Amino acid sequence: MKNSSSPKIIADYMNIVGEGPIWHALDKLLYWVDIVRSQIFWYNPINHSHGLFFQGSENIGGLTIQEEGIILFMEEGRIGILKNGKDLSIISDRISTEKGKVQRCSSRSCRTSFVGTMALNSSGNTEPPGTLYSFD
Description:
This protein has a single domain, classed as Neuraminidase (6 Propeller), CATH 2.120.10. The protein is mostly beta strands. Residues about 105-110 have low confidence and may be disordered. It is about 0% helix and about 50% strand. The strands form three sheets. A four-stranded antiparallel beta sheet has the order 1-2-3-4, with no helix packed on it.
């Protein structure tokens, strides 16, 4: 199969670890995170505008979009809900035993999110570097 187009840069924020692009059907925007810089960005494919949506204070491994707001999966197992792009509330310390790990996620339409953790620094670590969880 011949590729007729080349990839092009649409938003160059020099992300350290740009991950988890996810489409928000109501906003008609694409969101993604820079895990290490604790940032969430947005992109509008209609007018090609983009920008910083949220600046956090700890690593953000991923996000899912729910009716209540944007669910963030963060460092050390914390789970937060972000409303209006600025009001962040921690809703769970459910995976708090995972010290030193960042969560990465995927979601399904039935409101279950799958969250995987990854070690920030695996040197000298005797535990496995990651675990998979589900969150309803």
